[in-house]
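Q: Entry one of two.
A:
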Amino acid sequence: MKPREDEPLDLDHLREELHQLARRVDALEHRAVERPEPVATANSVPAAMGPDLPLPAANPIPAAGRAVLGLAGAFLLRALAESGAVSSLLVVAVAILYAATWLVFSVRTREQNAFAGTAYGVTAALILAPLLWEATVRFHALPPAATAAILVAFLVLSSVLAWSKISAAVTTVTTLSTLIAAIALMVQTGDLVPFALALLGIACVIEASAAKDHAQNMRVPAAIAADFGIWLLLYVMTRPNGLPEHYKPVTVAACVALGALLFALYATAIVWRTVAVRQTVGIFEIVQSVAVFVLAAGGALRLTQGKAASAVGALCAIACAACYFTAFMRFADSPRRNHHVFASWGAGLGLVACILILPESELTLIWSAAAVLTTLAGTRASLPTLVIHGGVYLFAAALTSGLPGTILNAFTGAALEQATLALWIVALSAACCYAACYSATHSRTTAGMSFLSALFAAVSFGALAILVAGSFIGAKLTLSLLATTRTLVTCALALGFAFTGSRTGRNELVWIGYLAIALGTLKLILEDFRQSNPVALAVSLVCYGALLIVVPKLSGKPSQS
């Protein structure tokens, strides 16, 4: 707007306005330089979206979608095989490679995405197991032996891949799928040997892979499956009604070899873990060792109808010596569980070897000698394990000597028998074991063995006393007098042990005296009141009443050495 002519031009005011405008423009230019526009990045969030939020985790939906596509490809291969346009064997080969490819993807993907890796492993298992089932059972494109080999090879591939990547989840999926497929095909096809070998191979792979801990959780399922496979083989071959229709016969030699292979597999694994690697034996190893021994030894004896007893017994004797050597030499300073477990295996194998090799009439003598020798060695060398084993051998000798039958006759009122040599052997060996423990350093183990050996000695000598008395009296000994005689012997034993224990300070003898009193009470009720006449019963009650009065007084006296 032009100023009017009558108004004077205010130059100073105009100059001031221009200076203010220049300052404002300059301030705007400096602000633009100091505050540049933010550069847009992939992770930047516009201000309008609110505060920064954490990025979401890997989305499992795409991985599941790819797994579904993998299954779709397997069904396409199945449809191709059904159409007959291509050879079934070629389709099976392509499908096996297809499943192996998914397995490789599974192991390699699991490091970045655990869900995707597991999903791909499940996809590989879902592709392979039904494929082998149909190729073997339906299309007959693969023989059972080839199917069993493919199952083992698939697990070997999984273990090799998982070994470098430490993928326990993939190993779990593949192991369970191969085990289930092998057992199902074993039952369905009736061809037992290939799939029994496959189960043993899978168990071997798992035991080897467990060294890196990624297959530890599969040891138990693999062992159960291997045991079941060998058990099914033995059961079918020894079935009372004969071989089922669709099952193929297996030779005795093959069955025995498979059982021996199962035992050798787990025996080697246990020895390697405990002796070489110096690990502590676990509950799984203990239970599995007993299971495989029963399957191998019991199966061999049943298949050969006892003809393999000598061979199995000889192997048990060798294993017994090896277990004892390992327990007392290799594990002398190792974890005590290893020592006790191997020593127990040695004792058990020794008993089994004697049963299988020796005639029954010699078992009492051999086990009695073993009881005395092991007790003497244990007390002299301060080895509690040997002292305990002395009690085990003594107990076994008592079982085979006829002592349990003699005790049972004492309560049932049966007729007297003749004193046998086996009873004398057990009585004398029990006395020798007690003498060895009597002179040894007192400990909990020797105290327990002292009580056990003294108990067996008391029972054996009591049985012998009854039998010897009966042989002298002979036919004149009626049932009434027989019951009274047994009561008198029981009272004499209780009184003798209580008196000896109170005078020598051996508490185990006093306890045996009280145990004899308890057994005497039971005998009075079961035998004397039923079979004795009034006079004989009165004698029994008088003796027993006097015993109840005298024994507590004897045991209450201060002990003297």
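Q: Entry two of two.
A:
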Amino acid sequence: MKKTFVKGALVLGVAGIIIKLLGAFFRIPLANIIGDTGMGYYQTAYPVYVLLLTLTTSGIPTAIARMVSERTAEGAHEEAFRVFRLSFVLLMTVGTLSASVLFFGADMIVGFFGAGKAALAMKAITPALLVVPAMAAFRGYFQGLQNMTPTAVSQIVEQLFRVISGLALSVFFVRFGVEYAAAGASFGAAAGGAAGLVVILAIYMKHRSAIRHDRSVSVRSSRDESAGRILWTLVSISIPITIGAAILPIMSNIDLAIVMNRLVDTGFSKAEANALYGQLAGFAAPVINFPQVLTQSLAVSLVPAVAAAVKTGDRPFLKYNVELSMRVAMIIGLPCALGIFALSKPIMLMLYPSQPESAVNAASCLAILGIGIIFLSGVQTLTGVLQGAGKHMVPVGNLAVGAVAKLAFTYFLTGVPWINVRGAALGTVAAYIIAMTLNMRAARKYTGAEFDISMTWIRPGAAALIMTGVVWLVYHGVNLVLGNAVSTILAVLAGGAVYAVLILLFKAVTLDELERVRGGKRITRIVAKFTKSSK
């Protein structure tokens, strides 16, 4: 039976939602504990860590998954395990090097950004670079075996321990100053990584007998590759993926490098510039992670599905996967974007009740970034398509063009006093628009996909617009009685329910497609009864 991306995306998507909920539970109280100044320190250290982590772990696990999958399909299980073993050594080597750079270069890095007190937070997060790469090797191996569960479980445990330890340490150290509290929060990433590694090791031990059996009946690979050749293949596949994955963290570091300095040049004090940056990166940006994780799960699951279709020369199945993936991305992205735009201020006040002034100021950044979700969804999904089709450098180049545009937009707009930090958010949206447009052109060229305007944009867009009106009416209808937090939650729930019904009524999703999802047959029976009774 042919495997589409849907099942793998569902497993990773559910795990991703749980992870982001835990992440919100981390960042929201953290912002309330250490304020925008502390979040400024934390957000100075964290993007640099994410960039190094991306360089260390983003491309190699995908390369592992692809190489393991190819060898497993041939029955060469021993060679697949050899790929895993060599990649583990490679990841540990680059992880140790990046940890050394971050720890010993922390003072110089934060000095360059003009945020000297963030050095503690940067050093505290360093140990994560020693454990997360090891965990990434195991994740890549299991993904190559088309088993997404170990990745999902280890990610959830990693995030859970990060939240618990990070918040506990920030509460303990805040008495000594917000810079110490930010360092405690940063160390949570290391604690979480260690916990995740222990869990995925336990899962591996559980599967070890089955892995040994497969290795014992392994056939000889037609490749007959040396260790050096395997490592070279790993690196050659991973480098374009790593560059592409690094561009988003690079864009965050563009903000870090430009925004505060430009705000100071405009007339803000260093403290005011740090607080404004904290509102953008610490208050508004994390909210965007919720819808982003769903489309990122699509991208991860698309790579093997598209690669299999390309390998077998099945063009109709390839086109089906690509076109469906873009539709799913828009079905997710459009309502999230418009809903966040409409409820930006209520969301900020609900999430940061003890920082009302900063929350209100951050709402405009959230509204702008919210609209960007539409285009970010397309960028991530089509990147997965192009990587699966073997065109790894194409989305890299497209996102690089977007990053250059962001650099120009951010530099110019943040220098306008009344726009200030919102210029960085506008620059980010511009980058996503450019990258998605270029990716769509490339996807058409290399896969032959044709994106149906009605099914991809008009139908889910119409449903999302009506949903936005419902959300606005519900919120303002009950806000004076029930208060901001309850009203916001009710508005979101009402909007979600209305959108789900409208998507079916507008036939943006077919019954055949619903049946492919776990539990979908039950949904189709309900829909069929509803439509039959309404006639």
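A: Comment on entry two: Residues 65 and 143 are 5 Å apart (CA to CA). Residues 6-57 form the longest helix (52 residues).
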